[in-house]
Every structure is written in C-alpha cells, then in structure tokens.
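Collaboration report, partner site 2.

Our partner group contributed sequences for two proteins of shared interest, and the home lab folded both. The records are reproduced in the order in which they were received, starting with the first partner submission.
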Amino acid sequence: MARVMSKSSVLTLVRTYWPSWRRSASDAHALDAWMRGEQYDVTDDPEHWAFGRPYSPRDTEEEYDDLGRRTPTPWAGLVVTSLAQTAYVDGVRMPGKTENMKVWNTWQRNRWDAKQGPVHRAAIGHGLAYGLVLPGVDPLSGEKMAKMMARSAKKMSAWYASDDDEWAQVAIEAEPYKDDKGNKGWNVTVYDDTAIHYVTCKLDGGSDSDWEYISYETHPLRVTPVARLANRIDLDGRATGEIEPYIPMLRRIDQDTFDRLIVQRFGAWKIRYIAGMAKPSDAAKANMQAMKLKVEDLLISTNADTKFGTLDSTPLDGFIKASDADLRMLSAITQTPPHHLLGLSSNLQAESLAAAESGLQRKSTDFKMNAGEFHEQMFRMVATIENIPDEAKAFDMQVRWRDTESRSMTQAADALGKMAVQLKVPLEMLWEKLPGWTDGDTERAKELAESGELDALMQALAGTDPNAGNAATPAQQTGDSGADSGA
C-alpha cells in the first residue's frame, strides 16, 4: 500500500493549488449565475469576462436601474437544459449481454436516476463536473456499499499530471464556514490516491499561518477517487461549457431587451406640444400653465399664433427584430432548435421536428461520448469498493442511453416492424428501440412472452379468441339453429 502523505506535504500541496481552485470556483459561480438568469448580479469585477449588466446611459437614475433589473433572461439556462434533456442513462451492460451489471444496483441505491440530471447540467453549463466514490453504509439496512456523490466546479477542482491521464493526481473540495464569533474561513478536503485529508483555512488562505491540518482517513482505491465529466475538452486540457463561449452574444441579447424597455418606458407614446402661447402676466398664471397634462387633457389657446402638434412615438418593431435576429444566431451557433428559443409553433410534423433537432442530437452524441466515459469510471470505482473484480476490470462496459429523439410512434413501429420481418432481427432487441420504452418494460414483455400471455394479450387486443375454432357458438349451445323449433 502506498504511503500516506505527511501533514507538511499536504499543506504545501493545498497552498500551491489554492489560487487555481479559487479562480475555477469563481468562474463556475459566474457561469452558474448566467444559467439561473442572475447575470445582472455578476458585478464584483466589471472587467470580468462574465460581467452581466447591460450598458445604461444613466447609472444614477433609479428608473434606469429598475429597467436593468427586468432585463436578464436565462437564455443560457435554456441552452443548457435543451442539451441536458437529451442525456439520460438507462443502464450499463457488457457487450452481448441483456442484463445490467451488478454495479447498476448501486447506482439505483444512490438515487443516481435523479442525480444524473444535475451532474450533466453542471458539466454542460460550467464546463466541468465531478463524481466521487467512497466506501459507505446503506442508512436503512446497514449494509456496506459504495457511496456515489456528485460535485460541481463551484466546490471541487482536480489536477492531472498529463492531459491524457484518466485519474487525477489530487482533487480539492472546499466549503466556506463562519464560526460563532463571525470569523470566516474554509473547510478543505484533499483527495489523493491513498487518503482523504481534512484541512481548515482561515480568511482567504493568503498566509501559511492560515492553514491547519486536522486529520486524514485512508480509502481502498489506488487512485484518487474522483472522476471528471467535461462537456468538451481539447488536446490542451481546456474544458469548455455551453455558456462561456457565447457570453458576448448573451450580453447582446440582454442589451436588446434593455434598449426595448427604455423605448417602451420613454418613447412609446406620442408627445403633444404647444408653441407660441402668450407669456403669462403673473406668477400664478405661469404656474397653472406649467401644470403637467394628463393623457385625456385637451390643449386650448386663445392666441391665434399658437401652434399645436405631436412628436411621433418610437416604433418598437426594429428592437424586436434585432432581438429575434440575435436569438436566431444563438440558435445556430449553439445548435439549439430555433423553436426552443423563439417560441414558434410546436404543431410540427414528426419529420420537421426531427430535422429541426438534428443539430442538437449531434451535439448530444458528442456529450454522451464524454459522459459515458465518466459514468464508466464511476462504475469501476464502485465495483472495486464492493469487491466485484470482473466488473472493476470491465473496460468494455457500455453505458446505455435513453432514446430522446423526436420520432412518432408510427414511424418507429413501421421501421422496427420492417427490421423484424425483412432483416429477421429478434423482437427482444427491437423492444429497447421503442420511444419511451424502459428496461422495466422490456423485462415485463419478456416475462409475458415466455409465459405465453403476450400472444393471448395481442389476440385479445385484435378482438379474436385463440380457441374460437373449438368453441360452440351461443346458438349451438342453446340448440337454436335459427329455425322455428316446432317446425
């Protein structure tokens, strides 16, 4: 077994990586604000690339500030959600097998059917997310089991010796705290290939005296028990999410909205004017003349030289078209279906809907390639902790993804029927391709097929009786041939 790092080595390591962790966490918080439509509050540093406030002609007026706060819209969150909703794990199998692997039970016990959505959203939005696997205990039964946990880039960062490495050298997780005296600091956890180290940090960790080593505990894995999920990662190790590259465009869309709100508030009405009126003879008449007019007030003057007129309102069409044009561009560069962003009619034919979402499905395939490797890493760590050696070494396991493409049931049934008849593909393989069909549905169908109940069910739905040829009709049962019994 590898030797556990000394206290001084751990403190040196965490102080070295702490500035990098702070930058990564700060960037993730800024991107998270864009996901939640709170980009207006990203104001700590106006020069930051994620700065979210639209430009205002007047920074000091309360009315302009109020319009600015009505401007942010979570378009980034919609881009992230559109992709995340195409990626759901439905099982994990070995090639050629029809049953899920044993580690799938641990996935279910850890409620990862529900957790996978937040993990995928975090990776898509922030660029990175992390999974953590450690020994644990089932809270109900008390049985030993692997605990699968998820961490966002707001809390965790990992560092690798090489961009090609599968396992991290070290990972750091940190949570802020505030004690009873109001002192602030960080509870820091350091993961390496032998142990989990617990450290505390006072203030911002800028001084060596701010750090204190608390304790450690070993783990049974021979690697750092952290898996990294990257939305996109290049050969230089740079992970990019679905928000950061498009922030300039998202800011432009928010500016479009802000400009339209300014026009709606200050330039959307015609302005009536009067010129050439006689100068009031005293202060009282001047005050009366200066009174603000109501919308329904009528302007009257006894002076023949007085001129009346109106100043036209500013049309909003151009502002609305500018916003639509930017949304169409956002749709194109993010491969998000235009009807998701523009609110177009959803009454589309299945073929048209599939064509509109083809770009999103291609992007989804790219994401699933990275996410599949992440989940397989998690499963191998689970198998190692739960002592399932054949699955811990199953490098050819395959994560099964739910089919989320937009296809009508008629199209799917027609295509699958032709595959069964013309290509002689076994029905059991085709059941899994049905839209919305789950593993539970497949198992139920197999049980019905093996018991013979499936044939009886299909015949019942078709309105036929499998024993119709041997059964007597009601007339035969009563002896009535249709003629008068007395004839």
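Second partner submission, folded after the first:
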Amino acid sequence: MAASVLRAAPRAETDVRAHGAVGNGRAPDTAAINAAIDAAAAQGGGTVRIPAGDYLCHTIHLRDGITLYLERGAVLRAAPAGQYDPFQPNRWDRYQDFGHSHWHNSMICGVGVKNVAIAGQGTICGDGLSRGELNDANARRGGADKIIALKECRNVSLGGFTLTGSPHIAVLATGVSDLHVSRLLVDVGRDGIDIDCCENVIVEDSFFNTPHDDSIVLKSSNALGYRRPTVNVQIRRCFVTGGFHPGSLADGRRIAISADAGMKARIKLGTESCWGFDRVTIENCVVWNALGIPLMTVDGGALTNVAVRGIVLRDIQDAPLFLRLGSRLRAPADARIEPFAGIAVENLSCIGFRMPLTISGLPGQRIADVSLRDVELVKRRAAAAEDGGGWIPQAAALSASDVAPPEKPSAYPEAGMFGPLPARFLFARHVAGLAIAGLRLRTGAPARALAARTASSPAPLFWFQDVEGARFADIAAPESAGPICNADSPCRPSVIFGSTRRD
C-alpha cells in the first residue's frame, strides 16, 4: 500500500490575520496562528492560510483535518528560545539521541493527529533552533531543535514549501502511517527528514542540501517504546547534496562548502535500527558532492527487500554504497541480530569516489542475497593522503590475512570504520549469495600512470573474505588494473566468473 495523499475538500478556511497575526517579524504570532488552527478544527477541519509576511513563532500545534497553507512570500520564522513547548519525558530515550526522543520541543508539532497537511510556496525558517546535542541543554531552557515533529500521526502530506535554518532535524516523523512528502526544498545544516518507525511513506521530487548531516534518513528506533519497523518506503526523484553552505541553495547564492567541512549529506538507512526495515525503494535519485548511500542495521532489526535503482552519484566523499550488518545493539535487552537479505542494486553510476563499494556482515551472520546489475564505478585518482583507503600501497607485500581489516562488530557504522581497505572497487566479507552482472570499472588515471601504480602496489579490484555463492558476469575492468581479486581469498573457489574483459 502506497502512502495516501490528502485529498479531502476543506470545510473551512481562515486567515491567520483574522485571529490577530501581524507578520512583521518582530511581534510573536504564535497565539494567533494557534487560534486560527483551533477555530478551523472546531468546525471539523479546514485550511489555515498564512499570507505573505514574516511570522515569528514558537510551537504551533497541528490538529485533525487541518491544512496549514503558506502563501508565496510567507515566512514562519523561529522565535528565540524560552517559550517553546517543553520536551516530554521519554523513558526510552537512552536508546536514541535526544532529538529523536522528543517531539513537543519543535516549531510545528503534531502528536496523534490525522488528515493533516502543510502546503504552499512559503518558507519555514529554523534559524536559531538548536543544532542538537546529547541531553540538549537548549531544550531545557525552553528551546527547540526541530522545525516539524510528528508522532503517531496518520495521513500526513508535506508539499511545496521550503525549509531552511539551523535545526538538529528539519522534519522528524516517528510512528507515522501514510506520509507523503513532495516538492520540498530542504536547505538546513543537519538532518533533512528523519523517517523513524513509519509505514507507507513516499518522499519524491524534492531537493536537499544538508552539508553537516543526512538528507533523507530512515530509522527504526525504540523512541516509541514498542516494536515498530519502518516498512514500505519509496524515495524517488530526489536530489541530494552537501555541497553548499546551509541556506545558500534556497536563496540562490550557492556558496560552495569544501569536502573537509563536515560533508555528510546522503540517503541512508540506519543508524538506529532495533526494529528493522522492509520493502524500501530508492530510485531515480541524484547524489552529488556528498557521501554515498549506506544501508545498515546494527541494533538487532532486520533489513530486507531493499531496491536501489536508477541512481546517479557524483563526487562521492566515501563509498558509493556501504552495506553493514553490525551488533552495536543500542536497543532493549532482548534485541538479537536479524536477517540482512534481499538487496537489489540496478542501473547505478558513480563517478568520483574515495573508498570501494563495501559489503560487510559479521562472522557467522552473513549479509545474504545481494545483486548488483548494470553498475558503473569510475574512481578518480586523488593524492595518497586524500585517497581514503581506496588504494593500499602496502598490499603488494602482505598476504590477504595480513591486510584483513578489523571486524569492529559494535562500532558506530560508517564507511571508513575499518580503516584502509585492500580493494579498489569492491570489498565484501561475510556474504552469502552475491550476484554481479554488467559491472563497468574505470579509473581517472592515465593508462601509463595506472600501469606503473599497479606494478608497484597491485591491490586487487575486489577483495573477498567468507563469501559463498558469488557469481560475476560481464565485467569490464581497465587495462593494467592489476589482479582481479585477492589470490588467497577463502571465497575464491566458489566465485564463478562469466565474461570478464579488459577495456
């Protein structure tokens, strides 16, 4: 079942100015906006219109059946800390960060509401909100760290407007059923949209610039205190980057940010993952000047039936894809490692990356049934100090066992967590069932330089450990690229090569 779109005709329409809002950017308009929402809700729901103006506000409360409509030129602006709703107690907050454990300390809050929407061509600006720290001191002083927070809501639509500012999270959706997000421009410092323990979600046709954290992140935490996986999510036709200073994409300045200035924008599953993920599709998206796409479960939940297709990645600062099964187990005491299986990647192109595509399970608990089909990987050469582990000069003098990176089963999962990897394009260990067909590998190095480099340090294209049932067909690798895979790999007897050629 796909996420539904709010279509009900409004039974009432009210202008916030009729309830005393002035929109001058100086006088708080919180009470007037909430009064307009309450008036519409008393009539069974309807549209609350916010005309052009600058509306300073603390916490706004969504109600059943309400559409909050921001007209072009309307700006909802975060008021200074001091009068936001206090964060509510949550005895489960030790299992996830502070920002993901509370909802009332936000600019716009909806708890248990249904049939609601935020729409229009206006802007919601969270400048001045907390960037989020563990046990956030700002929230304890009447501050807020989220622009929009939704908990256990049903049938929610967010579409057409712009989100800017400095919050920890622009949109937090926890335990939401039937969520439709479309045509948003999200240009914030940290998380764009966090989808936690939700079902039937569509995120489409949206732009994200989040240089210091994730753009679209799926989680399945224990913030609600009961088992609820994230299931049936479609992410499609979205553009994701960390390439600009926050706010400068929305206002047209497009101020570039360097790769070493905290670039983390990406589409991501995990880290919080104690209840797992099922039926997730990421398709026809562009990820540019950012990190790659990680699919991770480390807190005990399963990760199953994920499709990644039609993806363009450019100037990736770590690995194009990072598949990780771990055992951090930041979860209730009865959490156990569950299956990571059924990952299909098709029609993916990555030009420019620093680390090899990585698939890493655990000893005795393999990632299962991974397929890569029609994948292009083009590795641009970088200076050795910037290479990030994609090329290991000392690999020539070491056996496969000597260069095996540490397992780090309980470490925080991210590409680069294992240190330098002994492969240039693909690192796979603890995997059962790996099918690769139509793989194109290229490097930006000139052929002569590449031949000299591989002669002195022939790190393999692929490195395998504890991989069973691998099938390769139709692989194109560059001339003089060195060995295809590590010679004494434990999986080598079970690797079946189809047509492999040197371009």
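Feedback sent to the partner group on the second submission included the following. Residues 1-10, 382-401 have pLDDT under 50 and may be disordered. The two ends are 45 Å apart (CA to CA).
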